[in-house]
Design a protein that fits this description.
Elements lengths: L18 H6 L5 H21 L4 H27 L6 H16 L11 H19 L3 H24 L8 H12 L12 H6 L10
Helix pairs in contact: 2-6, 3-6, 5-6
C-alpha cells in the first residue's frame, strides 16, 4: 500500500474535523523561525553566562550541531516522512505528516511543523542531550536549532518563490525533482550533502 498523490498547483485541504487541531496544524513561517532563532539565542546566552565552555569549543560544537541537523533532516525526510505505508494506519499517518504537503505543495500554511509540536520536540531534545552531553548541549543544540530554522527558511523559499539566478538555484531544482518527478530521490532540502553520500541525488533517473 502506498499513499500516491498528485501535486495540485494551488489549494489546501482540511486534515481534522476538530477546529483547534486544524488550526494547530497550520502556521505562518515567521512563527517557527522566530521561535527557534530565539530558542538558539537563549541557549547560547546561557552557555556564555553559566558555563565554562571556551569560545572555540562553543563554535566547534555549534557547527557540529548544525551539520548534525542536516543529517537528521535527511533521515527523517527519507524514513519517517516517506515511511512505507503497508497498513492503512501507516498510510493515514504518512499522509497527515507529509503526504498532504506533496498533494498541496503550494499551501504556505503547511510548509513547517506546527510550532507547538516543534517546541515540544526541541525541549525533549534539550532535556535528553543535557543528560548525555552535560554543558556541551548549550553549544551543540543552538547549532542544531539554527540548522532546523535554516531548513524551514529554505523549504519555504523553494515553494513560495521562483528560483534565483545564482548557485542557490540548485536547491530549487533538487526539491522540484523530489516533488514533481520522483519522491524517492533528493531528500535533502537545505543541503544536498547527504544525498551525495547516500547516493539518492539521482537526477538522471528523474529526467534531469
Amino acid at each position: 500500500m502506498r499513499n500516491e498523490v498528485k501535486p495540485q498547483k494551488k489549494g489546501t485541504k482540511q486534515l481534522f474535523d476538530n477546529t483547534l487541531l486544524e488550526t494547530l496544524s497550520r502556521t505562518h513561517i515567521s512563527v517557527p523561525l522566530l521561535i527557534f532563532f530565539s530558542y538558539a539565542a537563549g541557549l547560547l546566552y546561557w552557555n556564555i553566562t553559566y558555563t565554562n565552555l571556551r569560545a572555540v569549543t562553543t563554535l566547534v560544537l555549534f557547527f557540529v550541531g548544525f551539520i548534525a541537523f542536516t543529517w537528521v533532516e535527511y533521515l527523517v525526510h527519507r524514513y519517517v516522512f516517506h515511511m512505507k505505508t503497508y497498513t492503512e494506519l501507516r498510510n493515514k499517518i504518512q499522509y497527515i505528516i507529509h503526504g498532504v504537503h506533496h498533494e498541496f505543495p503550494k499551501d504556505k500554511d503547511r510548509l513547517a511543523m506546527p510550532p507547538l509540536l516543534s517546541i515540544t520536540l526541541g525541549t525533549i531534545l534539550l532535556l535528553l542531550f543535557r543528560v548525555i552531553m552535560g554543558d556541551f548541549v548549550f553549544a551543540f543544540l543552538p547549532g542544531f536549532m539554527v540548522g532546523y530554522a535554516t531548513y524551514l527558511a529554505v523549504h519555504y523559499l523553494v515553494h513560495a518563490y521562483p528560483p534565483p539566478k545564482n548557485f542557490f538555484k540548485a536547491l530549487w531544482i533538487n526539491h522540484s525533482v523530489h516533488h514533481y518527478k520522483d519522491g524517492e530521490v533528493v531528500f535533502g532540502v537545505s543541503s544536498p550533502l547527504w544525498d551525495y553520500l547516500y547516493g539518492t541525488l539521482d537526477l538522471k533517473k528523474s529526467g534531469h
